[in-house]
Design goal:
It is built from two helices and no strands. By secondary structure, it is mainly alpha-helical. Helix 1 runs antiparallel to helix 2.
Length: about 70
């Protein structure tokens, strides 16, 4: 495997990880906000945690797109 292949795979992993984190946080927030049964024993800490994950993932995607734009 050539050096460029490693870079391409690493950047692709970072994109996929950020997108996965974003989807997971969006789903969790959606469940907490739209389904009363989803709240249960959850506290506002869960809202903040998922919001932080969503913001972090979005920031990572923006940085990746800025520095390593995809075709």
């Amino acid at each position: 495997m050539q050096k460029q292949d490693y870079k391409t795979k690493a950047v692709e992993y970072l994109y996929n990880k950020a997108k996965t984190d974003m989807s997971k946080a969006e789903l969790s927030l959606n469940l907490l906000l739209n389904n009363g049964v989803g709240i249960g024993d959850h506290s506002t800490g869960d809202f903040y945690k998922n919001l932080d994950i969503l913001v972090d993932a979005k920031d990572r995607l923006e940085i990746l797109e800025e520095r390593y734009p995809r075709g």
